[in-house]
Specification:
- This protein is an alpha+beta fold and about 100 residues long.
- About 40% of the residues lie in helices and about 25% in strands.
- It is built from three helices and four strands; from the N terminus they run βββαααβ.
- A four-stranded antiparallel beta sheet has the order 3-2-1-4.
- The chain starts with 6 loop residues before the first strand and ends in a 6-residue tail after the last strand.
Length: about 100
């Protein structure tokens, strides 16, 4: 496993009255009233997801669960938001989460 495999790609964007955050590497999503809230929710979801896959009841399916990626359209949105932030200072946010090496 390389260090790049330990970084999980995520993005968040404001949609109408709420924020939506997506974890591309595990195809997870969270919704909240602010960026901070949605990021915190997604971080907790990722930690629980990884724990369940590696040490919880879903351990027999770990290989499948840890290789479940978001669809291409979500990845394109991630790169579009990243480009928009760079060029136009857009409202979406791109962030990386570090995959816990030892399940909590």
């Amino acid at each position: 496993m390389t260090p790049n495999q330990l970084i999980i790609k995520c993005y968040a964007e404001q949609e109408a009255d709420c924020w939506v955050a997506v974890c591309l590497d595990f195809n997870l999503a969270a919704q909240g009233d602010s960026f901070e809230e949605v990021k915190t929710k997604l971080e907790a979801m990722i930690a629980e997801y990884v724990f369940d896959a590696l040490a919880g009841e879903d351990k027999p399916y770990a290989a499948q669960l840890l290789s479940r990626r978001a669809p291409l359209s979500s990845w394109l949105k991630y790169y579009f938001i990243k480009l928009k932030i760079t060029l136009l200072h857009g409202t979406g946010r791109v962030f990386d989460e570090t995959l816990p090496l030892i399940p909590a």
